[in-house]
Write a structure and sequence with these properties.
three-stranded antiparallel β-sheet, Arc Repressor Mutant, subunit A, alpha+beta, Beta-Lactamase, 9 strands
């Protein structure tokens, strides 16, 4: 319970707004419906003040009343939508990455495609498992990373043809796919299954599994991964233990993105089949 009788605010503080917001905050999952007396007790307002705020909120369409109890109406979501719609993808993704890392005890990142590279836009690390320090803004060649392959697989066929005909597929390790034909075959597999697994192709000892992040139109706009050391997990373990929570994380990010960015037509990036 928040007691609005606390003081210590400056001269620009609007106490009536604070009181109105305290009335809204009195309603939650455990208290979806409250009487006037319950609202007054929860907020520290007098019954007369609580009645005025409640009636105002009812008239504005943010609440409804059956004559005895009050409850929030869906219009209240408008107050939170302004915040959600201002969030960037990294801001939306970070809380979900933190939950995923806490669950699997491995590092997780989100990337976008920029030309032939992936660019890290969000990351939550655990133990350092690469010789290169990864931070927001780090770039790697897309063809050698799980997140990059998810994003490449999502591109239209014509775009992919141009990429495969011009990309320099250097062998970064002894495991790296360096053949355009082999890479195309792998990307088609990723399109079909909806996720990518890369085994020590970017750096020896590094295994990574990635899934797409789609916008409200179903277009792939980014990818999210979990990375681990080959000495800690077999390939079977990566798929069995890390893929399910990774896919769940991608879906949760997509849900929050859909709330923040309603569908507004295609972006020109093909979704994974």
């Amino acid at each position: 319970m928040t007691d609005i009788r606390d003081t210590g605010h400056d001269g620009d503080f609007v106490q009536s707004l604070e009181r109105g917001l305290s009335v809204i905050r009195a309603f939650d999952a455990e208290h979806p419906k409250l009487t006037l007396s319950e609202v007054a007790a929860s907020t520290g307002l007098s019954r007369a003040a609580a009645r005025r705020f409640l009636r105002t909120l009812v008239q504005l369409g943010y609440m409804r009343s059956d004559g005895t109890r009050f409850a929030l109406r869906p219009k209240i979501l408008e107050l939170g939508y302004a915040y959600l719609s201002s969030l960037t993808l990294p801001e939306v993704a970070m809380p979900h990455l933190e939950q995923l890392v806490e669950q699997v005890h491995e590092s997780s990142s989100v990337c976008e495609l920029d030309g032939d590279d992936v660019v890290y836009i969000a990351r939550v690390p655990t133990k350092r498992i690469m010789t290169v320090t990864i931070s927001v803004g780090t770039r790697f060649p897309a063809y050698a990373t799980s997140m990059g392959r998810v994003l490449l697989a999502a591109q239209p066929d014509e775009w992919l043809d141009d990429y495969l005909s011009s990309a320099s597929l250097r062998g970064l390790t002894g495991h790296t796919i360096t053949s355009a034909t082999a890479l195309r075959r792998e990307l088609l597999k990723i399109r079909a299954q909806g996720w990518a697994l890369v085994d020590q192709e970017l750096e020896e000892g590094l295994r990574s599994i990635a899934a797409p992040i789609r916008d409200a139109d179903g277009q792939v706009i980014a990818s999210v991964n979990v990375s681990t050391h080959a000495g800690r997990r077999t390939l079977d373990s990566v798929v069995a233990d890390l893929l399910p929570p990774l896919l769940n994380t991608a879906r949760r990010i997509e849900v929050d993105l859909a709330r923040a960015r309603p569908a507004a037509g295609g972006s020109g990036v093909a979704p994974l089949a």
